[in-house]
Amino acid sequence: MSENKDPHVAESGVEDVKFVYDFTEGNKDLKDLLGGKGANLAEMTNLGLPVPPGFTITTEACKTYLDSGEEPAALRDEVSAHLEALEAKMGKKLGQADDPLLVSVRSGAKFSMPGMMDTVLNIGLSDKSVQGLAKQAGDDRFAWDSYRRLIQMFGKTVLGVDGDLFEDALEAAKDAKKVTVDTDLEAADLKKLVTKFKKIVKTEAGRDFPQDPREQMDLAIKAVFDSWNGDRAKLYRRQERIPHDLGTAVNVCSMVFGNLGPDSGTGVAFTRDPASGHQGVYGDYLQNAQGEDVVAGIRNTVPLAELESIDKKSYDQLMQIMETLENHYKDLCDIEFTIERGQLWMLQTRVGKRTAGAAFRIATQLVDQGLIDEAEALQRVTGAQLAQLMFPRFDDQAKVEQIGRGIAASPGAAVGKAVFDSYTAVKWSRSGEKVILVRRETNPDDLDGMIAAEGILTSRGGKTSHAAVVARGMGKTCVCGAEELEVDTKRRRMTVPGGHVVEEGDLISIDGSSGKVYLGEVPVVPSPVVEYFEGRMHAGADDADELVEAVHRIMAFADRKRRLRVRANADNAEDALRARRFGAQGIGLCRTEHMFLGDRRELVERLILADTESEREESLKELLPLQKQDFVELFEAMDGLPVTIRLLDPPLHEFLPDITELSVRVALAEARKDPHENELRLLQAVHRLHEQNPMLGLRGVRLGLVIPGLFTMQVRAIAEAAAERKNAKGDPRAEIMIPLVGTVQELEIVREEADQVIKEVQAATGTDLNLAIGTMIELPRAALTAGQIAEAAEFFSFGTNDLTQTVWGFSRDDVEASFFTAYLEKGIFGVSPFETIDRDGVGSLVKAAAEAGRATRPDLKLGVCGEHGGDPESVHFFHEVGLDYVSCSPFRIPVARLEAGRAASQSRGSDHR
């Protein structure tokens, strides 16, 4: 066999798969096979820590069961062999009458899924063995309490009995006794409760509670397997992006009891504070209790520090073990333990979940302690955590009135007066009012209002709708697709569930991190991390907080490690300067269409309506100096850094009024016998330019080929602006990008015209302009013929938004709202392909195009400027396929920088989900 053989395959061949491991056989690196809990129980056993003996049934057994509906044929015999070994080690048999061995059966997937799957404690108790347990423990109450717990957990988990029936019976028993907590029930009370619980099982499950201990164990194991596909487990995996095909391991562990009296108890502990990352004694302890009592919150715990006065010996031993585990795992550890009559037992450890702030603090602390290096520190934090730290958020302690919920499209917390059109948003904003722009959906006409607003709320659309994409680009809070809100823009109000009406001017608050919408003003807590990135708070300064220091250090680690450069998507000098403060190394996408809106719309309309060549040339002549000034300001803001300018891309109809509104205006004018000639011409143009699918119609390079002078005007504006900046001793580094190219011939024609314009400007200004010309790869054909296109292109920028749209055949403006939810629920998608790049489909085209392009032109510069450029997982893919840079909205630049550093150091990292 090969050296790297699968550890669960026996020497005799694949047929002899090993399905069960003793705790002494595994280790922490076998999480795929033993699950996180089993692997860590084995690791603690190997470290010589006090772990109750037991064994783990592998995830392979679970997957076989889930695939076939039957447990593997060999599983029962393997479990029997390990159970016999466990019985021999403990000196007692499962469920024997005089001194029973009892076990717990607990789930344990590769990734922690707390509370999502099933656990059953005290397996082995029966009408006979409960008497033996009472005798051995010298405590009747303890034995009957343990038995009622088993029936309750088994009935609910294994037999599907409504858990409330058991809870109601327990409450009734306490009421009858006139007590409020379980521990005040005596043995006689609990014995009656056991009888009641067994009757509930018989009535609800149609069978008696099983008295055979092996049947109890086998049914519990099967229930844990089944719980992998329970609704709550599937929902959790979708939320956490955990694959659905991993399966869960099952841990069978000899029971230790925290409910044997005041010298017993159970607790949870953290080696550091998971909320802040600070070192200290953190956790909870509960005397005379079993583990689920702590989790369920049915009794008040005491702080872990109080264990020192309750049981000094166990406390000191626990502190020692915690230090051992943290040094061994080199990370924050989350620990479950039980004390049985003064004997400490470790039931679980795992790398603990933590807040985003704690993650950054802990990573730098561990570097300072010499436990990890910079490369490993980068694996302890994520771009998603950094994003959480950057956006303002609502005060958790505030009282709120939620009125709706939509899609969390762009993070942050925004408060303002509801307004229902862009004009009002701008007007009120200029008067000093903070506003939330509320629309059914936004379009390019709303851009001014979106800029003026604190946040955007729409009742339609998804994460890649116009509102979402633009909001993320601007760093605006946005909630999209809040369908339960009925937005009436004409009457300037929205109706919320229950009939309450929000009128224009009413205060609302929107949470772009959760998608929640609130009535009134919710207090906002600012982010010091954004202040740091914007230069308003300096790391190392006396007033800089600990979190800012940690973020500063981690970002320095990332910048030293990363190979990918990070640019910004920015369309004006203000955004460019913000991007530069955030660490942008240039502009990867300047969308010139945004420069044609607002005050210039009339000029664009005249260009579109031009009937003669002279009218068209006149419109272009008026647009030229305006475009040139745009680029002068941009080159000044990004002096010394590359600026990639995309020539006009969207369909022309986007610059014209809405066809329905314009038709109504014309009809009303005709009814008054006062038709406006320009509006009639506009309506004719709208009809002429109408397309069934405008995103696949007359746009991009096609505009430049069919509207003479359009692209050459833009190229001339770029060249003249670069010459002016250069003559002013600046260092402009312009790159001209041709959009939507599908064949090299398109690019060759546009390039020839552009080269001629550049030569003319060089001659006229006496400057030597080195303007690179390249293209966007955003069509499948362009990706497939990249080798040919590279002959005429000095760079490629992958437009992954449109490439995803055209590869999948999706209209990104429609599909998220219509069927993506179903696709995610059915597991067709793990995540939207517009959010994270589809490696197998779109990604394979990117990889192939990059390789083909560089085969033709080895020095070809490669970047990406779609939304994926700021997505953490996608950044790792772009690093892997050898791109030179990613480009994203200014507010996502720190995230991209961090993930680029993490990608470069990935081989050193480990999984800290």
Describe how the helices and strands are arranged:
Layout: E1 20-22, H1 31-46, E2 54-57, H2 59-68, H3 75-90, E3 103-109, E4 119-123, H4 129-137, H5 140-157, H6 163-177, H7 187-205, H8 213-227, H9 231-240, E5 248-254, E6 265-272, E7 279-287, H10 291-296, E8 302-303, H11 307-310, H12 312-329, E9 333-340, E10 343-351, H13 356-368, H14 374-379, H15 383-390, E11 393-394, E12 402-405, E13 407-410, E14 413-419, H16 422-430, E15 435-439, H17 447-452, E16 455-458, H18 466-474, E17 477-480, E18 486-488, E19 493-495, E20 501-503, E21 507-511, E22 516-519, E23 524-525, H19 528-533, H20 546-561, E24 565-569, H21 573-581, E25 587-591, H22 601-609, H23 613-637, E26 642-646, H24 659-671, H25 677-689, H26 701-706, H27 710-727, E27 733-738, H28 744-765, E28 772-777, H29 780-784, H30 786-789, E29 795-798, H31 800-808, H32 815-825, H33 839-856, E30 861-864, H34 872-880, E31 885-888, H35 893-904
Parallel strand pairs: 14-15, 15-16, 16-17, 24-25, 24-31, 25-26, 26-27, 27-28, 28-29, 29-30, 30-31
Antiparallel strand pairs: 1-2, 2-5, 3-4, 3-5, 6-7, 6-9, 7-8, 9-10, 11-23, 12-22, 13-17, 14-21, 18-19, 19-20, 21-22
Pfam families: PEP-utilizers, PEP-utilizers_C, PPDK_N
Family: Belongs to the PEP-utilizing enzyme family.
Domain Pyruvate phosphate dikinase AMP/ATP-binding: 75-300, 306-357
